[in-house]
Design goal:
This protein is an alpha+beta fold. 24% of the residues lie in helices and 43% in strands.
């Protein structure tokens, strides 16, 4: 099945409702974010982006990510790999 922004929003929305604790890989240049297989929590969903909170450094850090980042492969939600 071809991934689209709408299917990604639906899948992330389902995770947000049922299982907000996820594992993510994030590699972005602007803003510079590099997270590898870290546990995170989806803390918010909005029409054009979603927010996660991770504690890789020991302190909670929130990141705002676009659904397009998931489509382009800059953000990988490991729980969505089987979908």
């Amino acid at each position: 099945m071809e991934r689209t922004i709408e299917t990604i929003k639906k899948d992330i929305g389902q995770l947000f409702k049922t299982q907000p604790r996820i594992h993510v890989n994030v590699t972005m240049r602007h803003p510079k974010v590099s997270v590898r297989n870290e546990p995170a929590v989806i803390v918010g969903m909005y029409p054009n982006f979603f927010q996660i909170e991770e504690r890789e450094s020991g302190y909670p850090r929130r990141h705002t990510l676009q659904y397009n980042d998931v489509l382009m492969g800059r953000v990988e939600i490991l729980e969505l790999q089987d979908v």
